[in-house]
Design a protein that fits this description.
Blueprint (H helix, E strand, L loop, with lengths): L2 H4 L9 H15 L4 H8 L3 H8 L7 H10 L4 H17 L2 E5 L3 H10 L8 E4 L12 E5 L1
Antiparallel strand pairs: 1-3, 2-3
Helix pairs in contact: 2-6, 3-4, 3-5
């Protein structure tokens, strides 16, 4: 295990810094600009900007603003791009109840296309039902 893997949480959802970095990189590449050009304009080092784009560093709001200015985009547009991506990730999940409805849930899972490689997640509701038993929900992402 590498040292940088130890500090990162093992989450199913991407980290916000990864989504922000990817959006910055896509924007820079669409503009046909280099890391060096954007880093110089933003007043940050090339390695630091590279780490931001790869989701390894979480920039301060001041640095993020400077990078957005260097890319000639508004911060609100960057946040909107990332927000749309998060919504797409959330809506791509398929919720399948399991437990007492196990047979029907299995049928639903088998109805998914064979090429669908989205991982399944298991989630419990926040509050149990009045009977004291909580349902388990299977999510496909």
């Amino acid at each position: 295990m590498r040292a940088d893997e130890i500090d990162q949480p093992k989450a199913k959802d991407p980290l916000l810094r990864s989504l922000i970095g990817a959006a910055l990189r896509r924007t820079r590449q669409r503009q046909g600009r280099t890391l060096a050009d954007v880093a110089e304009t933003a007043g940050v080092s090339v390695p630091y900007l590279s780490e931001i784009e790869r989701g390894r560093k979480e920039p301060s709001s001041e640095v993020l603003g400077a990078v957005c200015d260097a890319l000639r985009i508004e911060l609100v547009d960057l946040v909107a791009m990332v927000g749309r991506e998060l919504v797409e990730l959330r809506t791509s999940r398929v919720v399948v109840p399991i437990g007492s409805r196990r047979r029907r849930a299995r049928r639903r899972l088998h109805d998914l296309p064979a090429t669908d490689e989205r991982p399944l997640e298991i989630a419990r509701p926040l509050a149990p039902r009045q009977s004291g038993r909580g349902d388990i929900t299977c999510l496909a992402a």
